[in-house]
Amino acid sequence: MAFAGKLLTRASLGSYICRTRGLTANRVHRRHVVSCIDPSLGLTDEQKEFQKVAFDFAANEMAPHMAEWDEKEMFPVDTMRKAAQLGFGGIYVQQETGGSGLSRLDTSIIFEALSTGCVSTTAYISIHNMCAWMIDSFGSEEQRHRYCPQLCSMEKFASYCLTEPGSGSDAASLLTTAKRDGDHYVLNGSKAFISGAGDTDVYVVMCRTGDKGAKGISCLVVEKGTPGLGFGKKERKVGWNSQPTRAVIFEDCAVPVANRLGEEGQGFTIAMKGLNGGRINIASCSLGAAHASVLLARDHLKVRKQFGEPLSNSQFLQFKLAEMATRLVASRLMVRQAALALQEERQDAVTLCSMAKLFATDECFTICNQSLQMHGGYGYLKDYAVQQFVRDIRVHQILEGTNEVMRMIVSRNLLQE
Amino acid sequence: MSGRVLVGVKRVIDYAVKIRVKPDKTGVVTDGVKHSMNPFCEIAVEEAVRLREKKLMKEVIAVSCGPQQCQETIRTALAMGADRGIHVEVSGKDYENLGPLQVSKIMAALAKKEEASLVIVGKQAIDGDCNQTGQMTAALLDWPQGTFASEVSVDGDGLKVEREIDGGLESVRIKMPAVVTTDLRLNEPRYATLPNIMKAKKKKIASVKPADLGVELTSRLEILAVEDPPQRQSGVKVEHLVEDCPVASPSTLGIEVGGVLCCRGGTCLSSQYTVITAGLD
C-alpha cells in the first residue's frame, strides 16, 4: 500500500478500521459458508433453529455494543431482558416455572452462539441461568414459583455467592455463618468476586449452618434490600466489564428459614451441582469467543498484505489457522459431549464437565490469543474486537473452579479405588 | 372473508454470503452454501402474524416451493408464528427453471384452494431480484394488488396500503381478497422465541405437487449464461473539480471521472494541482 501519503493518514485508517470492524462483526456471525468449524454441523434441525436465533440476537443486539459496554462498564439490563423474552433467561429451567425446558446441549449451543456477540454479557446470563436452575431444582414448590418466573423473565437478576476472601478453591472451608434464630437465620461474613453483586436482586448464598467442612454448609436465597446485606466497591477488571463484580457483605443479616434451598447441610452439594452446568456454560462462552476470533483472523489474513502478498499465502499462517480450527473443534466436541453426559446423568458426567471446562477454556484462550497475534499491531487496538475476546475469556480459566481444581477433580477420579 | 393469509417464503442464499459463479457459467454455487429465508419474506411473515395477533386475520399459512430443504424455511416461518405450512415439492430441473410465472401460478392455485383472503409475499427475492411474483399472482387471480407496502391496515372490507414509490408515498385502498408485496420499512421481523421454535415442531407442513394443483411448470425462459460483473478498473483520483480549475477548457478536458471531466491523467494543465492515479484493490 505504498501510496502518496494523503490516502493513508492515521485518521482515515482509523475510520477504515472501525468500518471494517463493524462489517467483520457482522460477517463473523452470519457468514458461515460451510467450513470445518461451522458450529451447526451435526445438530438437529431444532437445535439449528435455536442456534440461529442466538446468532441473530448476538449479531444484532449484542455485537454492535460489546465494545461500548466494555469501555463504559455498562450492565446491559435492557438487552438481557430482550434475550429473556426469547427464552434465554432460564434455558434449562422447567417450563412450568417459566423456563424454556431445554437440554444442557441445547443450552451449550445457545451460549456458544450468544458469546460471539459479547462474552461478558453471555457469561453473566449463564450465571443467572445457573442460579435459576438451582432454585428450580432444589427449591420447594413455593420457592420455585416465588422466584423462578421472575428470574426467567429477568424481571429480577440473580447472583451466585460461594467464593470468599479466604476460600476460593478451598470452597468447603467457607466462613460465612448462618445462625438459626427462631424462623430466621442470621448471616455474618462476606463473599468476594460476586458477578452482578449490587445490581442484582436475588442472591443464592452458600453459608455455614453446621460444623466445619462441606456437610455444614447450607444454601440460602437472600433478596436485595434485606437489612444487613451490603456490597463492596465495584472491582476494576481486565475483562468481563459489562457485569459489575463486588464483594457481598452480611452484617447480622436476617434471612427467613423459608428461603433455604433444600435441607441444612445440602448447600455444598447444591452449589457443586450448579457448577457442573455452570462449567459447561462457561466453556461454551469460550467456544463462542474462539469461533469469532478464528473468523476474524481468517478475514484479516485475506485482507492484509505484506511482502506483496496477502498474509493468507503464508504457509506458517495457514498452518497456524488450521491448528486453531482443530483446537476449536476438539474443544467443542468435548463441551458438547460433557453436556450430553450431564443431561443423561451418566456416571462420568462430573469428571467430563471438569475435563471439558479445563480443556476448552485453555485451548480457546490460546486460539483467541493467536488470533490477536495474527492481527499484528492492529490486534492490540481496542478498535478491533479480538482483544476484547482475549481479555474477556481469560478469566474463564479461573472462575467456576480454577483449571487447577479441574485437574484435582479428574485426578481424584482416576486415582480412586 | 375466510381470514386466511397465504404467505410465500423463499429459501435463498444468505444475504451475507459472498456469491460465487459456477465455472460452467450455468449459475451460482449453491452446494454447501448457507441458505436462509429471503429477508423480504421474513417481513411478509411478520406482517401476516401481526394481522392475526390483531385478530384481523384468523390463520397464517406459510408456503414455499422447492426441494426438501424448503421445509427448513417453512419451519422458520412457523417459529415466527405462522399456523401451518405448505411445501410445494419442486426439484431437479424443474427447480432450476422455477421462476416468478411458475410460482405465481402455484400461489394463485393455492389461494383459490385455501380460500385465502390475502396473499402476502416479499417484493422481490434477493437472488432473482425479479419483483414479479406478487404482481403476476394478482393478475392470475384477478385480485387487486398493493405492492411495495410500507404500511398495511385493514379498512372495512378492504385494505389501506401505503406504497413506497419513486415520488414518495402513495396510499391505495384495495378490496379483499388482495395481494400485498412487502417492502423493507413495513416492519421489523421478530426473533423466533425458544418456546415458539419448540411449538413449531408440532405444527403441520403439508406436501403437495404442482401437478396436484393443476400447474404445469415449463419455463418460457432459458438462462444462457451467468457471469461475474466486470472486474473493477483502476480509477483516477482527482484533487479538484473542473468548476474550480482556472485553466481547464473544453479543449483540454480529457478524462471523465465519476461524471466530472478533468485534466488528462498525470499532468494537471493548470500546474496547480496534483492528479493522482490510484490503483484501487
Automatic annotation (TrEMBL), chain A:
Pfam families: Acyl-CoA_dh_1, Acyl-CoA_dh_M, Acyl-CoA_dh_N. This is Isobutyryl-CoA dehydrogenase, mitochondrial. Its EC number is 1.3.8.5. The active site is at E400 (proton acceptor). Its cofactor is FAD. It catalyses: propanoyl-CoA + oxidized [electron-transfer flavoprotein] + H(+) = acryloyl-CoA + reduced [electron-transfer flavoprotein]; (2S)-2-methylbutanoyl-CoA + oxidized [electron-transfer flavoprotein] + H(+) = (2E)-2-methylbut-2-enoyl-CoA + reduced [electron-transfer flavoprotein]; 2-methylpropanoyl-CoA + oxidized [electron-transfer flavoprotein] + H(+) = 2-methylpropenoyl-CoA + reduced [electron-transfer flavoprotein]. Belongs to the acyl-CoA dehydrogenase family. It comes from the Eukaryota. Pathway: Amino-acid degradation; L-valine degradation. It comes from Acipenser oxyrinchus oxyrinchus. InterPro entries: Acyl-CoA_DH_CS (IPR006089), Acyl-CoA_Oxase/DH_mid-dom (IPR006091), Acyl-CoA_Oxase/DH_mid-dom_sf (IPR046373), AcylCo_DH-like_C (IPR036250), AcylCo_DH/oxidase_C (IPR009075), AcylCoA_DH/ox_N (IPR013786), AcylCoA_DH/ox_N_sf (IPR037069), AcylCoA_DH/oxidase_NM_dom_sf (IPR009100). Residues 44-155 form the Acyl-CoA dehydrogenase/oxidase N-terminal domain. One of its GO terms (biological process) is lipid metabolic process. GO terms for cellular component: mitochondrion. Residues 160-253 form the Acyl-CoA oxidase/dehydrogenase middle domain. The keyword Transmembrane helix does not apply. GO terms for molecular function: flavin adenine dinucleotide binding; short-chain 2-methyl fatty acyl-CoA dehydrogenase activity.
From TrEMBL, chain B:
The keyword Transcription regulation does not apply. Signal peptide: none annotated. Keywords: Electron transport, Mitochondrion, Transport. One of its GO terms (biological process) is fatty acid beta-oxidation using acyl-CoA dehydrogenase. GO terms for molecular function: electron transfer activity. InterPro entries: ET-Flavoprotein_bsu_CS, ETF_a/b_N, ETF_b, ETF_beta_N, Rossmann-like_a/b/a_fold. Belongs to the ETF beta-subunit/FixA family. Heterodimer of an alpha and a beta subunit. This is Electron transfer flavoprotein subunit beta. It comes from Acipenser oxyrinchus oxyrinchus.
